[in-house]
């Protein structure tokens, strides 16, 4: 009964933020929007403190995205007229993960191309991801617990759930909206093709987060603090958001996801420095991919720390 009450309160809080959010966007109330974001995350986190880690994680993530959409859209329309209607805003806020609302200005127009191919691609990724999750369950039950099994099962689950959620459901969602004339797009764009961390984080991996940090943090701070400082703060902010999803629900691992993204930000600055000096060894495709894979995977235990793996990742697979 308490869980139903908590979920109901969560739904009301997020619905109120969406309904009030449109007026805040029109008023360009940036400071108030940030205050609402922090307050609602704190309230929802407290409401779900006695709930299971998975449910708490989902509630915090959804609340964070709702609040960040208000901020991102406010910043996006800050220097231009708000041509997004209230209905379009509500549909966007509830139905799309990306942080750009402009595509929903054409909601209800004629269908756009590539919709069906996106959906088919998404379905294939869901099937592939589900197969990896089943394989992880088989490996765990067949070989039981040792260090190699732990690493193998964790790797299979991380890739499997990413295929299902990031490359699967989000691609299906993008394709479905295109049938309604909304120019939605893939939020994960062939990350394996990235030849640098700069390319990976800005153009290929989790475009929703890239849009969020760029519009809400990097651009507002760039003129005041310079691009390098603004970029580092944007990466740290991304780390803090990941803390909400990966550390807060299990009440452990604090600081590790932020450290991971701080490292990524520093490495992006190193890449930019090398490019400015024309010392850019990553122009070689093989070297570039090895560089990206190495720095993405080697520090990954900071991001997906043991408490998250055992408290959320494995239980999501029924392990």
UniProtKB/TrEMBL annotation:
InterPro entries: Wax_synthase (IPR044851), Wax_synthase_dom (IPR032805)
Any GO BP annotation: lipid metabolic process
Intracellular or extracellular location(s): Membrane
Gene Ontology terms: cellular component: membrane
GO function terms (MF aspect): O-acyltransferase activity
Pathway(s) the chain acts in: Secondary metabolite biosynthesis
Transmembrane helix is among the record's keywords: yes
Chief site of localization: membrane
Name of the protein in question: Wax synthase domain-containing protein
Lineage: Bacteria, Pseudomonadati, Bacteroidota, Sphingobacteriia, Sphingobacteriales
């Amino acid at each position: 009964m308490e869980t139903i009450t908590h979920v109901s309160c969560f739904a009301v809080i997020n619905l109120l933020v969406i309904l009030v959010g449109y007026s805040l966007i029109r008023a360009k109330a940036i400071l108030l929007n940030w205050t609402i974001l922090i307050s609602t995350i704190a309230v929802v986190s407290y409401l779900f403190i006695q709930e299971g880690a998975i449910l708490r994680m989902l509630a915090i993530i959804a609340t964070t995205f709702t609040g960040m959409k208000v901020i991102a859209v406010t910043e996006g329309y800050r220097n231009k007229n708000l041509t997004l209607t209230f209905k379009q805003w509500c549909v966007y806020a509830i139905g799309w993960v990306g942080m750009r609302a402009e595509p929903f200005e054409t909601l209800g127009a004629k269908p756009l191309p590539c919709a069906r191919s996106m959906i088919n691609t998404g379905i294939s990724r869901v099937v592939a991801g589900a197969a990896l999750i089943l394989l992880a369950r088989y490996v765990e039950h067949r070989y039981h617990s040792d260090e190699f099994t732990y690493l193998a099962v964790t790797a299979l689950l991380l890739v499997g759930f990413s295929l299902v959620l990031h490359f699967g459901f989000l691609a299906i969602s993008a394709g479905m909206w295109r049938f309604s004339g909304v120019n939605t797009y893939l939020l994960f764009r062939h990350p394996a093709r990235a030849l640098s961390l700069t390319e990976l984080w800005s153009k290929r991996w989790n475009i929703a987060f890239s849009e969020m940090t760029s519009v809400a943090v990097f651009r507002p701070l760039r003129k005041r603090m310079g691009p390098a400082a603004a970029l580092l703060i944007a990466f740290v902010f991304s780390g803090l958001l990941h803390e909400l999803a990966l550390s807060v629900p299990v009440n452990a691992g604090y600081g590790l996801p932020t450290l991971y993204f701080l490292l990524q930000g520093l490495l992006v600055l190193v890449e930019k420095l090398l490019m400015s000096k024309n010392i850019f060894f990553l122009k070689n495709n093989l070297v570039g991919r090895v560089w990206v894979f190495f720095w993405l995977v080697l520090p990954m235990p900071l991001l997906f720390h043991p408490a998250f793996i055992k408290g959320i990742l494995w239980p999501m697979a029924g392990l």
